[in-house]
Amino acid sequence: MTDQEKIRQAVRLFLEGIGEDPEREGLKDTPDRIARMCREIFGGMDEDAGMHLSRTFTVDNSEMVVEKDITFYSMCEHHALPFYGKAHIAYIPDGKVVGLSKLARTVEVYARRLQIQEQLTGQIADALMKYMHPKGAIVMLEAEHMCMTMRGIKKPGSRTVTLARRGVFETDPVLEERFFRMLERE
Ligand code: ZN
């Protein structure tokens, strides 16, 4: 059985499980639609951040590079519901930088799979360290979790904030402070 067929069968069973009729008009194509959608929203499973981060440019300076407000969408692995928000990334180059779009691509590689936010944050930071070898990297994610807002404790608008520091950001609080100040600027 192909992966796509597995998803189609599972969705049919799921629809029966919640008391639906998978054959009714509005639902007939739903298993196939979901199977195709999964390719996109879980497409990060087949990708490697190295594809994006290995293409570096040489630079002389080693000033902090900040890319903020990168919108991302991911899926919580405990409830298979979306969590989504903004990623903010900074690194201190050690002679090498990447095109700015590559940071957003890297976020997508790890966001497009079943995730927990803490792990997603760490994986982005680790990928920067592994492929670009900067002096340090810091990643902050702010996200709303549908499993907290549409069910369970129902706190609409509440955001979960996670932080991962690597290299000089772990040892130098001044750099960390500078990162937070850059985030406050419009
Ligand atoms: Zn959840």
Brief rundown of the structure:
The protein is of the alpha+beta class and 186 residues long. It is 42% helix and 26% strand.
Can you describe this structure?
This protein is α+β, with helices and mostly antiparallel strands and 186 residues long. Helix content is 42%, strand content 26%. It has 2 domains: 3-41, GTP cyclohydrolase I, N-terminal domain (GTP Cyclohydrolase I, Chain A, domain 1); 51-184, GTP cyclohydrolase I, C-terminal domain/NADPH-dependent 7-cyano-7-deazaguanine reductase, N-terminal domain (GTP Cyclohydrolase I, domain 2). It has 8 helices and 7 strands; from the N terminus they run αααββββαβαβαβαα. The chain is elongated and about 65 Å long. The mean pLDDT is 95. Residues 76, 78-79, 81, 145, 147 line the site of zinc ion.
Topology readout:
Layout (H helix, E strand, L loop, with lengths): L2 H15 L12 H12 L8 H4 L2 E3 L6 E12 L5 E11 L3 E3 L1 H12 L2 E2 L1 H16 L3 E10 H4 L10 E8 H4 L1 H12 L2
Parallel strand pairs: 2-5
Antiparallel strand pairs: 1-4, 2-3, 3-6, 6-7
Helix pairs in contact: 1-2, 4-5
The site of zinc ion has 6 residues, from loops.
Strand order in the sheet with the most strands: 5-2-3-6-7
Task: Tell me the major beta sheet.
Answer: 5 strands, mixed
Average of per-residue pLDDT values: 95
Kindly identify the CATH topology of the largest domain: GTP Cyclohydrolase I, domain 2
What's the overall geometry? elongated
- What would you say the CATH architecture of the largest domain is? 2-Layer Sandwich
Note the run of SSEs as H and E.
HHHEEEEHEHEHEHH
CATH class of the largest domain: Alpha Beta
Give the CA-CA distance, first to last residue.
51 Å
Strand percentage lies at: 25-35%
**How many structural domains are formed by the residues?**
2
Q: Which ranges are low-confidence, i.e. pLDDT below 50, for 5 or more consecutive residues? A: none
Helix/strand structural class: alpha+beta
Rg computed from alpha carbons, rounded to a whole number of angstroms: 20 Å
- Helix fraction by DSSP (H/I, runs of at least 4): 40-55%
Which molecules other than protein and nucleic acid are bound? zinc ion
CATH superfamily of the largest domain: GTP cyclohydrolase I, C-terminal domain/NADPH-dependent 7-cyano-7-deazaguanine reductase, N-terminal domain
Number of H- or I-type helical stretches: 8
Number of strands: 7
